[in-house]
Amino acid sequence: MRVCWLVGKEKCTQRVKLPHLKPVVIGRGPETGITDKKCSRQQVQLKADCNKGYVTVKQIGVNPTSVDLVNIGKDEVVKMKPGQILHIVNNLYPYTVQFADESGKTVPKADKMLHEDLCENDDTELVPRKTMKLEADMQGSSANPKLSNTSVSTHEGTSRSKEHLGHWSQGLKSSMQDPEMQVYKDEKTVVIKDKYPKARYHWLVLPWDPITSLKSVTRDHLKLLEHMHAVGQKMIEQCPARESLEFRLGYHAIPSMSQLHLHVISQDFDSPALKTKKHWNSFTTEYFLNSQDVIEMVRSKGKVMVKDHTSELLKLPLRCHRCKQQLSTIPQLKEHLKKHWPK
Description:
Blueprint: E1 3-8, E2 15-18, E3 24-26, E4 44-49, E5 54-59, E6 66-67, E7 70-71, E8 77-80, E9 86-89, E10 92-100, H1 115-118, H2 134-137, H3 145-148, H4 171-175, E11 182-185, E12 189-193, E13 202-207, H5 222-237, E14 247-252, E15 262-266, H6 277-284, E16 288-290, H7 291-301, E17 318-319, E18 326-327, H8 330-337
Antiparallel strand pairs: 1-2, 1-10, 3-4, 4-5, 5-8, 6-7, 6-9, 9-10, 11-12, 12-13, 13-15, 14-15, 14-16, 17-18
Helix pairs in contact: 5-7
């Protein structure tokens, strides 16, 4: 029978056994040696699946727990596997997981770890694109030649070779480098079509520079944010439905994917990939930060300020973004939204 161990990166003597499918709660205390009061005594719940080779991680405490430096969010759950790093709180106190047989011999990690299963926690994974020509994405429309024919370096030899890209949260870093996935690119940015679009038109604008998230943005990035916004506007300008559909450009306050990305999304929300309350509220509440607001915040404050308890916005009741009518279920919401679609 395989067993799982949580092993401290700084002190390998710190080992916590994670029994198969039994929840284990850790935090501040003698078991971890953590005395930081920003870490709750019940900060993280871990449950190992020794058969499948991963551990589910649930943040219980108020302050952020992260996997590979991507914040989980209070009461949210992600999966991690060997090779990834769990920081118990505030990107501190790193741990990894190891699976071993009962004799103590470490079990080699699998080359492929249930990729589709892991992606269930994500709503911005990407699909390969066959061409950079925007005509294919615009349903036969005439694209701007400046967008479709731009040619720049593929940015090979970047830090991506040094990063662990197996986790679903790291998917953007590998996808943005793949020419098959690129819709448009220039010297500063690349645009990719979302694999699970939450509307008829849903693109992601990403910088080539390795910027983890909005938390890493400073005033030095102001010109880049403005350029990303301009690229997003160009995508809208050449969209065949631009006259009938409204669009928003913005960022998730607490993104699930590691690499800064700007959403360019039409406001019809007509998509089978829109399935949960979390999906809906992430685009229709203050959880979605308008691009221009982010730019102004960085210009005036030098950084992006995210309000406390922002993650709680994902739990709000379903409410139409047009007329504010409250609906009970996603199917009811989708039926209601048809009333607001352009005639």
